[in-house]
Write a sequence for this structure.
């Protein structure tokens, strides 16, 4: 994580929270956060702001892709992930108190 300072800060916060919750909660879990980002869809009106360029071969013309989901490693990814989790908690609070 040397090249992702934002990810390092979030990881430190998570480990700090897990350490403080010892004994108070029955369960703790971990997950592959990179896969979580792929589940967060970008609003179609905002997809023009997230583009990447790629080629399939050395002699091929570059192709521009509009991203449909949050990409791990971008500056806005940690905010998008946390905001999505907060929104899900609010939306589902009545079903999962």
């Amino acid at each position: 994580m040397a090249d992702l300072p934002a990810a390092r800060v979030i990881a430190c916060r998570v480990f700090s929270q897990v350490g403080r919750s010892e004994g108070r909660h029955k369960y703790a879990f971990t997950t592959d956060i990179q896969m979580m980002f792929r589940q967060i869809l970008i609003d179609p009106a905002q997809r023009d702001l997230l583009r990447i360029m790629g080629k399939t071969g050395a002699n091929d013309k570059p192709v521009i892709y509009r991203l449909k989901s949050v990409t791990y490693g971008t500056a806005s990814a940690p905010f998008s992930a946390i905001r999505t989790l907060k929104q899900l908690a609010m939306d589902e609070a009545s079903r999962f108190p």
